[in-house]
Amino acid sequence: MLRESMSIPCSHAILFMHGGGTGQFSAIPLNFMETKGRTTAEHGVETRTADYVVTGLWSSKAAQEAKKFGHINMVCPVPEKFTYVPEPATWAPSIDASYLYYCANETIHGVEFPEVPTPPTPHAPLVADISSNFLSRPMDVSKLGLAFAGAQKNAGCAGLTIVIVQRELLGRCDPRCPVVLDYGIVEKHSSVYNTPPVWSLFVFNQVLKWIQETGGLPAMEAMNKAKSKRIFDAIDQSGGFYSSAVEDKWRSRMNIPFRVGGPNGSQELETAFLTGAEARGMVGLKGHRSMGGIRASLYNAVTEDEVFLLSSYMEEFMSANR
């Protein structure tokens, strides 16, 4: 059902794994990093190399973990503030990289790639963390060597990790790789080399049925566009009372962080905003501890009616407090 929903070609295998996205931070370099003779002071003459695009906390964590296994090349400068993505045409991939990694949607900073990027010199397969915008819109996975997603955002409950991997990339695994992270072993045994997360798989199947009955990924995309537009309109039409730092092109449809009372926010107003929201049954709007402010996460399960309630509350709060 997933292959049909996402139009996944037969060239790609679908694996059901454990460990969440964090497990994949290790699994990817262990499966894909190949020795290509780069000389570095850190790793010696023979080392493995991979390219990473860091656009927020999760891609930063992935790059940090991958450094345990080889040399990591940042294909573009890490932004001082994660409010945009350096244009792919400006990236500088290394010629000996085994893969190029990016995070399709950064949940904490609200930065999302609107489509699969095209690097200027595609020497290596693209690897994408699609955990937080998985199944929220159509995506051309044929352009990706590997995509992975934790199920807990749009695909069900925690415990299941979906990996979509190009079959020709299998078989490159480091001999030190734990067997439960070896893509080739998992694929050979149809994802049941060890006991899979059965309940999470059941819920995932029910979610896929719901998506198909609702109109498939095009319907999810239309719904998510409408939901995010409503919140961004409330921000943009507030005259600065609400503020989003993310550049328009890179605004996430899934996660919208914003400040109340100006670009840097007012602690008094933001505390009052959260208190009022909770009194109306809207919880989980507090921004990540590293960011502060407010964050609205608009995953597939959040309805348009619920988003309307939030945008209406935003207008009401602004009228009472500006």
SSE pattern: HEHEHEEEEEEEHHHEEHEH
The biggest beta sheet reads: 7 strands, mixed
Considering DSSP H and I runs of 4 or more, what fraction of the residues is helical?
Answer: 25-40%
Placed side by side, the strands forming the largest sheet appear as 1-9-8-7-4-2-3
Stretches with pLDDT under 50, minimum 5 residues: none
Assign the structural class, choosing from mainly alpha, mainly beta, alpha/beta, alpha+beta, or little secondary structure. Answer: alpha/beta
SS summary, helix count = 8
**What's the mean pLDDT score?**
94
Share of residues in strands = 15-25%
How many beta strands in the DSSP annotation?
12
Rg calculated over all Cα atoms: 21 Å
For the terminal residues, how far apart are their CA atoms?
49 Å
Give the overall form: globular
What does this structure look like?
The chain is 32% helix and 15% strand. The chain is of the alpha/beta class. The strands form three sheets. A seven-stranded mixed beta sheet has the order 1-9-8-7-4-2-3. A three-stranded antiparallel beta sheet has the order 10-11-12. Strands 5-6 form a two-stranded antiparallel sheet. The N and C termini lie far apart (49 Å).
Topology, element by element:
Blueprint: H1 2-6, E1 12-17, H2 20-32, E2 49-52, H3 57-66, E3 71-74, E4 100-103, E5 105-106, E6 111-112, E7 126-129, E8 146-150, E9 161-166, H4 183-188, H5 198-214, H6 216-236, E10 242-243, E11 255-260, H7 267-279, E12 294-297, H8 304-321
Parallel strand pairs: 2-3, 2-4, 4-7, 7-8
Antiparallel strand pairs: 1-9, 5-6, 8-9, 10-11, 11-12
Helix pairs in contact: 2-3, 5-6, 6-8, 7-8
Organism: Eptatretus burgeri (Inshore hagfish)
Family: Belongs to the class-V pyridoxal-phosphate-dependent aminotransferase family. SerC subfamily.
Pathway: Amino-acid biosynthesis; L-serine biosynthesis; L-serine from 3-phospho-D-glycerate: step 2/3
